[in-house]
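Q: Hi! First time doing this. I have a protein sequence and I read that you can turn it into a structure. Is that right? Here it is:
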Amino acid sequence: MDQTTAALERAHELTLDWLATLDTRPVPPQESIERVVGALGDALPEEGTDPAEVVDLLARACEPALVASPSGRFFGFVIGGTHPAALAADWLVSAWDQNAGLRQLTPAHSAVEDVASAWLLQLLGLPSGSAVGFVTGGTMANFTCLAAGRDAVLRGAGWDVATQGLHGGPRVRVLAGEERHDTVDLALRYLGLGEPEPVAADGQGRIEVPALAAALRSGSGEPTVVVLQAGNVHSGAFDNFEDAVRVAHEHGAWVHVDGAFGLWAAASPMHAHSLYGVDGADSWATDAHKTLNVPYDCGLAVVRDPAALKASMGMRGDYLIHDDAGEPFDKVPEISRRARAIPVWAVLRSLGSSGVRELVERLARHATAFAEGLAAIPGVEVLNNVVFTQVCASFGSDERTEEVVRRMLADGTAWTTGSRWRGRSVLRISVSNWATTERDVERTLDAVRRVVAGLEGQDAPTRAV
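A: Yes, that's right. Below is the predicted 3D structure, encoded as structure tokens:
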């Protein structure tokens, strides 16, 4: 216990030191991979090292090369930060060291997962009897839900994937909008389904329902899965769920919704209208480490029919202690896994429904402030209708926009990244962190103004963070 206590105390001290720097440190990393390797030492030592010394060495070597992504000024990707309740609960998860696969093996986690699942369904406005699987992230949430959908539509065609595999079976047709997230394609590749058939999207990236209906009519009664989107990664736009789900179900398709960050709009009356009709789908995927701000890794796979999910993910083992209520591993691709429901429960309990609502509305409000601030800069064009938490801006030519992106990272005040959307280079801002304040937004906008001024031939100012 002496070694354990010393190591944990040192880790606690270093953690608080790290968190205290987030408001003032540059957001991009300040050291290279090569320097970290040199500091860590690339040769495995013959003799061991005291655990507290190991923790200290690790922090000294890595801290300069860390990205300040938990700070309120990281807007490069939709990844969120870590809420204090979730961070503390995640420390307990590591200390308790529970395998969350079996109900009777870990009754504490099973109880937490049951409560958190019910709360999540309530917050997200999804059917109360749905199964909730806690997976690693959005990719595996899509994979898990699409596996349930694949197997269900094949069973409907008289083909059992569990016993017969895919070879020789009917083709599964997958339809998805042109502006779907790439993780949908990745999940489909894992599932042996290949690329989806793209369906036209409008100027904000929303699937065009008439085009979807036409594509469904052109099929020949094949087993079909339709993928919809809650929160386009560039525009934040939401598909027309009411009409798209209805049309898909009229043709017997399984409907899956990729809602990595946008599904959380359901928690706010100001934004829930964007999801009208989403509860009619068959499965939904989202990330808790995005809008909800729990630590990595935690995705959520929700399937309306628990039996369909269990048919795809479940297994039996004579050596296992089975519970009549079913097992957590019946809902996910893993057997052994981390107790991911505990940090989720902790954030939900800490915030309450009103706190989640306020968090969602605050993130969207910051995105609107960004859009207004960017639009006020001469020569800047905001390209999307800012309906949730995403902002895309052009600074004129592609070359000029890309130079702004480069200079913003060099400035260090905030992390904003470049992308290409609808044939144009853009600076993309994703607001996902619970810690982002109005001051963070204004500091970031000030950095953009400095960069733009520098492009106009003025002297580049000293970096200010």
